[in-house]
């Protein structure tokens, strides 16, 4: 399965979603703008978007919630190690209160993977980040990033925007 994303104004992305009613296009917003996201086997409908292969999927994306996307640049030679780490994850996040969905997205072009998690609320996400489970699953040395990182990872967060 593929995942597709594009950025734009909320109004533009809402019109795009209306133009393709046969697809479930999720509109998300943040202080920095809006993002449209959909999954499927359909052809790409975003003229200027990003395409990913969904490598790991847990749960269904909901119309309401908080989304955290960890954007992780990975070296070419580090891809198998990085992907294997997530394919063999312990799934503790799946049992956290407020957890809704998880995706590991492999870029079709470029080197920035996206680890997408959706939560019922931002508080649920913060509780996960402060949990012992989080600390165990992120048990890397805090001073040195993993060798497969091509650059510093960065986080983008969004709130799901309901149709109006």
Automatic annotation (TrEMBL):
GO-annotated molecular function: monooxygenase activity
Organism of origin: Ornithinibacillus salinisoli
PANTHER family associated with the record: SIGNAL TRANSDUCTION PROTEIN TRAP
Keywords: Monooxygenase, Oxidoreductase
Name listed for the protein in its UniProt record: Antibiotic biosynthesis monooxygenase family protein
Enzyme Commission no: 1.14.-.-
Residues of the ABM domain: 66-159
């Amino acid at each position: 399965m593929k995942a597709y994303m594009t950025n734009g104004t909320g109004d533009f992305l809402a019109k795009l979603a209306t133009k393709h009613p046969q697809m479930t296009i999720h509109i998300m917003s943040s202080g920095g703008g809006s993002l449209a996201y959909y999954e499927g086997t359909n052809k790409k409908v975003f003229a200027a978007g990003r395409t990913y292969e969904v490598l790991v999927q847990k749960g269904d994306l909901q119309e309401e919630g908080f989304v955290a996307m960890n954007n992780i640049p990975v070296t070419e030679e580090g891809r198998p190690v990085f992907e294997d780490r997530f394919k063999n994850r312990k799934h503790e996040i799946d049992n956290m209160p407020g957890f809704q969905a998880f995706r590991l997205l492999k870029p079709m072009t470029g080197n920035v993977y996206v680890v997408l998690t959706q939560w019922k609320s931002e508080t649920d996400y913060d509780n996960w980040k402060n949990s012992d489970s989080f600390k165990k699953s992120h048990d890397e040395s805090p001073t040195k990033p993993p060798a497969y990182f091509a650059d510093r990872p960065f986080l983008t967060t969004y709130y799901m925007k309901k149709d109006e």
